[in-house]
Amino acid sequence: MTLAPLACAAPPETKLTTAQIRATLGGHHVTDGRHWGHDYFLDGRLERSENGRTRAGRWSTQNNQLCLLLPEVSKVSPVCFDVVRVGEELQYRDAGSVVYAGTVRKSPSR
Where are the domains of the chain? Predict the structure, then answer.
């Protein structure tokens, strides 16, 4: 008897639309569970904790992308990413390269 190797199917990838990005991120926390975490408030505020440092910013969506206004980078020009769901993971991609990868959690009440 010959056994065929099992094919491990990769989880499907879904590029999120503007509406899906808003619904997925608004009022939620995205984190890799270790190095970084982003809190996306419904009013567009963003609180980022990266490697132990907390910074404020703003988030928005446009043209099916997540746009982050990061004051330490620019006070007027946001950095925009495609948002792709791969299984339970959410990836922020720039020109196809993964910049952030983490999971979505409900933000704690404040």
Answer: 22-106
